[in-house]
Amino acid sequence: MNVRSYNLCPMARTSGSHSDITGPRLRAAAQRLFARQGYAAVSMRQIAAEVGVQAGALYNYIPDKQGLLFDLMKSHLDDLIAAWQAEAKGQNPLDALECFTRFHIRFHLERPDAVFIAYMELRNLEPENFAVIEDLRKRYETVLEDILRAGKESGVFSLPDTKLATMAVIAMLTGVTTWYRDDGRLSRDRIERIYWNMVRKAVGA
Amino acid sequence: MNVRSYNLCPMARTSGSHSDITGPRLRAAAQRLFARQGYAAVSMRQIAAEVGVQAGALYNYIPDKQGLLFDLMKSHLDDLIAAWQAEAKGQNPLDALECFTRFHIRFHLERPDAVFIAYMELRNLEPENFAVIEDLRKRYETVLEDILRAGKESGVFSLPDTKLATMAVIAMLTGVTTWYRDDGRLSRDRIERIYWNMVRKAVGA
DNA sequence: GTCTATAGACTGATAGAC
DNA sequence: GTCTATCAGTCTATAGAC
């Protein structure tokens, strides 16, 4: 949480020290390229060119390419869980499910690249990194599972199988990212409403 | 549709002519490896080792690596569309939707590797190949969209938006492939039933 | 902190022997 | 149809100058 000082620098330089901006730019470039071409198809030279430095300079900020991928995925999932915790309030199951439905769609549509990487690059994680990411992903799924279970137990929802309903709803909501376009037919809010209508009926509420 | 003759060959050979088995083995090995590691992360030498030949020999069967990927994806989608056409009968929308739901789950669970590749490797297709695959994918989506539209128009389904319902149902059903395990808690038939229960309610039937 | 240069290994694809 | 050998290029990551 240091105060950033580069704005105060009186000289613009084309080379030299840029520690406070190269790091974020590296992560942004990698996220964009990994999402478009895939982790395995992107070279460190390509990322470096996007950042505007030589490839060797990247290793001042990351241990290796794998560490860069892991960092991007973990940050995304940490953000997701933190954002939900900030959003969730003590609610009855029906309101909680509507809140989750709209939150999930909204959060995912705001970060298409991070979402794409989180779903597509799991197989490129080394085993120990994969275990960390899987754990975070399951923790998030549990949020929805808990809502559905509470609603089923209190008789508000009618569900043949809580676990399958969890997977079905998450898949349905996340699927929005595969077809949504900013210039599309429907606004995000309209999409949220339509999906909530379908989710509500699917869980028998 | 030639009669296969290698079963009649009296001699087992470790090298030489194997045109009638190397082709299928190549496709099978590539499908397995692409699904597990991703197209970009798999080398032709790795595929060749799995097949039991040297890398150069593969080029007797494929024009290049891209052609191999395209062939796998196109075959999968051709199979999918052909299988649905064999399955579909003249039915009312409700029966047709149940038929589609169960068909989609069953077909996808039987071919996990092909499904994985079809969804994950789209970005590794060259533009002209991508266009072909996208067209086939959309043709299959239209099957469901037509069922939902017919049901909505005849008043059997209650849908806020036919196009979004199409995407939502496909995403929900395809999602089964991400968590299904052969030794899991539920049989495939039980899963089909549970999903049909949720789909039926989601479309307001 | 970024540069240049490079080690050491791997890549897709092809040529020609058999 | 498969082999060996190879081309010409790519890759990640590091060392050392500045």
TrEMBL record, chains A, B:
Cross-referenced PANTHER family: HTH-TYPE TRANSCRIPTIONAL REGULATOR RUTR, TRANSCRIPTIONAL REPRESSOR MCE3R
InterPro entries: Homeodomain-like_sf, HTH-type_TetR-like_transc_reg, HTH_TetR, KstR2_TetR_C, Tet_transcr_reg_TetR-rel_C_sf
Record domain HTH tetR-type: where: 20-80
Record organism: Rhodovulum bhavnagarense
SUPFAM superfamilies named among the record's database cross-references: Homeodomain-like, Tetracyclin repressor-like, C-terminal domain
Record carries keyword DNA-binding: yes
Protein name listed in UniProt: TetR family transcriptional regulator
Pfam families per UniProt: TetR_C_24, TetR_N
GO molecular function, one term: DNA-binding transcription factor activity
UniProt keyword DNA-binding, yes or no: yes
UniProt keyword annotations, A-Z: DNA-binding
